[in-house]
User: Which sequence fits this backbone?
């Protein structure tokens, strides 16, 4: 049995931690509500731009454009989105290990672009070279940042510094479920869009205004920017959700621990009192005998 | 009653427009393009400029950023980075952006920056134009 003072000190320590987790929970939930607003506004665009592109590819027999040409898979680039901080359950772990297992299945040189401190540290620890970090984008995904990121990635692709480009992010499946996902961004192929179901079927070829090349020159960068922006937003919302859940569990655990320690404290206090009474009674009895 | 088609205008930040319309006019890379029901399936680039929508016999106009659209016989999807109604445009901000872009063009930096500044100028000017045409204040 611990002494009274020790139990009291432990309860104090746990209370402090509980305050911390509680505060983090509140912060995450307020950030989440903002992130969800953005997500709701964005996910239509995110889905639409991908289904539109799929539709275009499906209805255009030959696409002679550098963005569509398979180049083999000698040099693969990954763009991985994770968080800046830990304490968010398995969020970082899930997305990073999805990326890692995908990388281990493919041989050849790898270029890694990351968002988030945790992602950078993870790949360095695993012995990979991180080519570029976009550390500012994890906490505040804006359209402006995604354009900057997309421009760098497209430029590297156009200069033949990579053969394939994959995006690894956390997909927001529902309010309680997040799934890490790998999407192939470049080159654009029909197989990149297997998860999208087209709602209209028709059999005519597409007509391009002014020309296929001019349209695709504009469309593909917009597509990449749009998808990256969507992925950043979904990852951010997923992170807040994961953190909220983790901190909620931590707070509940702290409550349980405090309750248990409180009982032990009461027992110990009772034991001390009983002990004192016994001593006093003993003393009185001894005095009586002496009389 | 003219025949209608379904139009969706979507930006990364919101769904700008959704509904049945009679006709739209956009600026493509080489000139204005009018779309009505039954158009041949087409993908077109959209240049910075204005988007005119005719719904229930009335025309409305919005400032639109670069983007593209997919036209199908009975529906059209426009995807662009930003689209704004005249009442949503902040004329002062657009004016400031225009001046900033002009200043950058004057400084003659790299070719890439020159194109970016030109695009920023075009965006600001199309916003101001649409704003001026519909709001006198």
Assistant:
């Amino acid at each position: 049995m611990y002494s009274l003072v020790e139990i009291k000190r432990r309860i104090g320590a746990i209370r402090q931690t509980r305050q911390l987790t509680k505060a983090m929970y509140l912060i995450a939930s307020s950030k989440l509500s903002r992130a969800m607003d953005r997500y709701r506004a964005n996910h239509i665009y995110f889905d639409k731009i991908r289904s539109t592109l799929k539709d275009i590819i499906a209805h255009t027999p030959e696409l002679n454009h550098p963005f569509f040409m398979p180049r083999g898979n000698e040099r693969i680039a990954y763009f991985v989105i994770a968080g800046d901080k830990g304490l968010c359950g398995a969020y970082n772990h899930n997305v990073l290990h999805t990326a890692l297992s995908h990388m281990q299945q493919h041989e050849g040189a790898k270029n890694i672009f990351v968002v988030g401190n945790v992602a950078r540290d993870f790949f360095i620890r695993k012995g990979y070279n991180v080519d570029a970090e976009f550390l500012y984008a994890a906490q505040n995904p804006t359209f402006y940042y995604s354009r900057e990121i997309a421009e760098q990635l497209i430029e590297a692709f156009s200069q033949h510094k990579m053969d394939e480009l994959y995006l690894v992010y956390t997909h927001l499946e529902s309010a309680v479920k997040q799934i890490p996902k790998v999407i192939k961004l470049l080159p654009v192929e029909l197989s990149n869009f297997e998860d999208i179901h087209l709602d209209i079927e028709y059999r005519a070829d597409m007509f391009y205004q002014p020309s296929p090349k001019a349209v695709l020159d504009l469309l593909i960068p917009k597509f990449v920017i749009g998808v990256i922006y969507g992925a950043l937003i979904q990852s951010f919302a997923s992170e807040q959700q994961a953190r909220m859940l983790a901190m909620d569990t931590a707070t509940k655990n702290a409550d349980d621990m405090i309750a248990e320690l409180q009982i032990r404290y009461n027992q110990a206090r009772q034991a001390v009192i009983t002990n004192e009474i016994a001593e006093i009674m003993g003393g009185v009895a001894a005095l009586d005998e002496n009389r | 009653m003219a025949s209608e088609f379904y139009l969706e205008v979507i930006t990364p930040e919101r769904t700008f427009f959704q509904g049945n319309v009679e006709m739209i006019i956009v600026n493509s890379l080489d000139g204005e393009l009018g779309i009505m029901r039954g158009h041949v399936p087409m993908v077109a680039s959209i240049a910075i400029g204005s988007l005119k929508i005719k719904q229930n016999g009335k025309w409305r106009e919005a400032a639109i950023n670069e983007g593209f659209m997919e036209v199908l016989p009975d529906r059209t999807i426009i995807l662009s980075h930003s689209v704004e109604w005249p009442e949503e445009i902040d004329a002062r901000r657009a004016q400031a952006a225009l001046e900033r872009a002009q200043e950058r063009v004057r400084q003659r930096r790299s070719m890439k920056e020159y194109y970016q500044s030109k695009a920023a100028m075009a965006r600001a000017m199309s916003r101001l134009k649409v704003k001026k045409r519909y709001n006198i204040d």
Q: What stands out?
A: The longest helix of chain A spans residues 212-290. The first strand of chain A starts at residue 75 and ends at 81. The helical segments of chain A are 4-58, 91-105, 117-125, 143-158, 212-290. Chain A has two domains: 4-18+250-290, 23-245.
